[in-house]
Design goal:
This protein is an alpha+beta fold.
């Protein structure tokens, strides 16, 4: 036994079943388990176990064929002649002959190993029977049920097409790799022509474009799990996924359909990584893991093989997908006992079934050996693992939370810690405290639930304000469910490194209309007056004022009015804490207005002004005559490059406003969103604005203008953080289809972008940079699964990098 495994294989390799979060570094167990010596040791154990199980019996069916294709791959990866000798002995014992039903894809699977050996040795007798078995395929026009096996369709003979011959998805592993290997062996184009015709007809029939997975066969169309989800079988999709790799391995680089196979592989990959479970495994029913919740190793072996092979061949981004593959590998190794038996394998069948720890079978061992061969070829080193790490440590700041970008401040920094406002997965509005002082303290992280109610909606996160007194005020509301909004006051207790907060009782404040969004501001030059900007009257931006730090509030003031009560402006706010509040806003929601311009006004000395200081109306006058978009200074016209939507507003080093917003080049579609930045020049009295980055596509349908999000660094407005599912510099789609986080810096008049995340399984969205921070690099954002504003499983993460002294 190698020294790498002595610490692992003690009774069971299940010692290392702990998994790691996406944002965490690779763990030590994975480094040990992926060392080439460890991988080879495990391969030998699995192969030896399966050879003992055969007991000298020679079969050439699909089960055994799959095993020996994996065993020969182990030889090709390691050069170990013991693997080759066992595979060659099987081929010779089978006399290089296939089973008799040559139109049944299962019965030609064994030819994959015959052909792999032939391509190394070039002995004609090794593939003579395979050539003869496939020759009747050419020119055949119909297929009868009795020429196949276990077929689900009934009746008269059918056309000789993919959906009738390769009628079940497993066949896309059994037959296509044989055809491409036959082309490599003979150069006969007929094999590729047959492949393309048959393969894509089967795909058209069995592949669900909506779900990105394959039905096992036509009998599964419309079939549902007990919870009402479609039935997609793990191993069935594993056959397809692994088969794509083995098919592509011998498909010529210049084949006109090669990219179609790669595209299908990538599409399946993006779905599969999303449904991998925390233990690294997949479940028998892929999209309903709770239906049959036991981990399952046959599908997982094929998926892990596909991921590793896809990385090795350049189809998948290594930095994004290798952590996912290694979770799969770690999960598989945890299922192997010390004899080399890979348990938890679903036995022969055609549907998701429960499995037992003792269940093992030859084809699963073969799929595992395929995966192990790809991992061995990677020859991973410590430097490889170092390259997988993100450029900065991404810290988990709040375990459960999400926010929208119209409640601020969402995050408050007081020099000792972060107060993070979010709404959790149970629908509780909350604040999480995260100490930034590096000391051991039981108070370094403190969760503070705020709302007495639960309403799962990302609009319900609280706004937080540090008052002039040093204490906290928070405001929150349910998303237009009731004419009420809520506040609590927080009193800080203890020194900075032992911080706690005592919260007052929740106060419910009645409003004249349903409310949402809260934005808290205090101006010291107005005797500490506190402003809360929300949406309320007429669905429009509404202002309430407190003269006693939020103990009591004025009557609501409709602040900006645009059209009817369904055409409401959206506003972002910034303030200097002393005497000025700036607002950028739109005409409406971008889905309601085909132009949706962006405007600016500011408040100072109890009056509202255009950007150049021109007086618009006093605060008192606004109480009876709300502001109109046309009263403001237009920053951006939607006719220029598509409707806009506001995202962030800060001040540059001269105290002038800098605005970030999006525009939708494709208008209502929202699949080509762009980020723009606007600066006010107080000398020329003009706004300059331009596109600075591509934002990519919208987060989900029905909200076609929800971008990933952009935030300006308040301490340096030449630095931004943005989320995109494309390269922000070029607009080219990224390799994962996920929203990644980027740091943008302006140098010599142009923006450059550094990618901060490379996640294949989660999205990174809605960044914010806290005001008055003292970090060299800081950004805080939402990470996880975000499906809609009411359906999410997310946490709050961030980078907190102090400059080195």
């Amino acid at each position: 036994m190698t020294p790498y495994l002595k610490t692992i294989l003690t009774g069971s390799i299940a010692l290392f079943t702990a998994t790691f979060a996406t944002a965490e570094p690779i763990n030590t167990a994975q480094q040990i388990l992926t060392h080439p010596a460890s991988v080879k040791e495990i391969m030998q154990r699995v192969a030896d176990f399966q050879e003992r199980e055969f007991g000298g019996v020679i079969e050439t069916d699909w089960k055994v064929g799959t095993y020996y294709s994996g065993l020969y791959a182990a030889y090709q990866a390691t050069g170990d002649e013991t693997f080759r000798e066992k595979a060659l002995a099987w081929c010779e014992a089978a006399d290089w002959k296939l089973s008799e039903q040559h139109f049944f894809a299962d019965d030609i699977c064994a030819a994959q190993t015959f052909l792999d050996v032939y391509l190394d040795e070039k002995q004609p007798h090794q593939i003579a029977d395979t050539i003869a078995a496939l020759e009747p395929y050419f020119g055949k026009e119909t297929i009868a049920r009795e020429e196949l096996a276990h077929v689900v369709w009934k009746g008269e003979p059918r056309p000789f097409t993919g959906r009738n011959v390769w009628w079940w998805c497993d066949s896309l592993y059994m037959a296509p790799p044989v055809l491409t290997r036959m082309y490599s062996a003979t150069g006969d184009q007929r094999y590729l022509d047959l492949l393309h015709e048959m393969y894509w007809d089967t795909v058209d029939f069995l592949f669900s474009e909506e779900d990105g997975l394959f039905y096992r066969d036509e009998s599964y169309f419309g079939k549902k799990t007990p919870s009402g989800k479609p039935v997609f079988w793990s191993r069935g999709n594993g056959w397809v996924y692994g088969g794509l790799i083995r098919t592509l391995d011998h498909l010529p680089a210049d084949d006109p359909r090669r990219q179609d196979y790669i595209d299908l592989f990538v599409k399946m990959t993006r779905v599969l990584v999303d449904i991998q479970q925390d233990d690294g495994m997949w479940r028998p029913g892929l999209i309903d893991p709770d239906w049959k919740p036991m981990k399952e190793s046959s599908g997982t072996s094929f998926f892990t093989y596909g991921l590793l092979a896809g990385i090795n061949r350049g189809y998948l981004n290594k930095k994004a997908y290798l952590p996912v593959a290694l979770k799969g590998w770690e999960g598989l190794v945890s299922c192997i006992n010390t004899d080399g038996r890979l348990g938890y394998a679903q036995l022969v069948g055609g549907a998701p079934e429960h499995v037992r720890p003792s269940d093992s079978i030859d084809y699963t061992h073969g799929a595992f050996l395929l995966a192990a061969s790809e991992l061995y070829k990677m020859d991973l080193t410590n430097s490889d693992f170092a390259e997988l790490e993100d450029p900065y440590e991404i810290k988990l700041l709040a375990r459960d939370g999400v926010w929208t970008w119209f409640n601020d401040e969402r995050v408050l920094y007081d020099g000792a810690g972060l107060y993070i406002g979010s709404i959790d997965s149970q629908g509780t509005s909350r604040i999480d405290y995260y100490s930034t002082i590096l000391v051991q303290s039981p108070f370094a992280y403190r969760p503070y639930p705020l709302s007495s109610w639960q309403s799962k909606d990302d609009h319900n996160n609280p706004a937080i304000l540090q008052l002039a007194s040093g204490n906290l005020l928070t405001a929150y509301a349910k998303h237009h469910l009731e004419p009420v909004w809520y506040t609590r006051h927080g009193t800080k207790k203890g020194p900075d490194n032992w911080r706690t907060v005592n919260w007052s009782e929740e106060k419910a404040i009645e409003a004249p209309a349903k409310t949402t969004y809260n934005n808290l501001v205090q101006l010291t030059a107005e005797n500490g007056r506190v402003f809360n900007f929300m949406r309320c009257v007429g669905w429009n931006p509404t202002l309430l004022i407190s003269e006693d730090e939020g103990q009591t509030w004025s009557e609501p003031i409709e602040l900006v009015r645009s059209g009817n009560d369904r055409t409401r402006p959206y506003v972002k706010y910034a303030n200097n804490g002393t005497d000025r509040i700036d607002l950028i806003f739109t005409d409406a929601h971008p889905r309601k207005d085909h132009e949706n311009n962006v405007y600016h006004i500011y408040y100072q000395n109890e009056a509202f002004h255009k950007s150049d200081g021109t007086f618009i109306r006093s605060l008192e006058e606004v109480k009876t005559k709300p502001l109109l978009p046309s009263d403001g200074t237009r920053i951006y016209a939607g006719t220029e490059a598509g409707r806009g939507w506001v995202w962030d507003l800060e001040y540059d080093k001269l105290g002038q406003p800098v605005a970030a917003f999006i525009n939708s080049v494709d208008h209502e579609v929202g699949n080509d969103l762009r980020y723009r930045l606007a600066h006010w020049d107080n000398v020329s009295k003009t706004w300059t604005q331009q596109q600075i980055a591509f934002a990519g596509t919208h987060l989900y349908d029905r909200e076609e203008h929800y971008a990933g999000g952009i935030a300006i660094d308040p301490q340096n407005t030449d630095v931004i953080y943005l989320s995109a599912d494309v390269d922000p510099a070029t607009g080219q789609a990224n390799s994962t289809g996920r929203y990644q986080m980027f740091r943008g810096t302006l140098q010599n008049g142009s923006w450059t972008f550094e990618q901060l995340t490379n996640d294949a399984q989660v999205d990174n969205i809605r960044p914010i940079v806290p005001r008055d921070h003292d970090f060299d690099k800081i950004a805080i954002w939402v990470q996880g699964r975000y499906t809609t504003y009411e359906d999410y499983e997310t946490s709050i993460v961030g980078i907190l990098e102090k400059a080195e002294n």
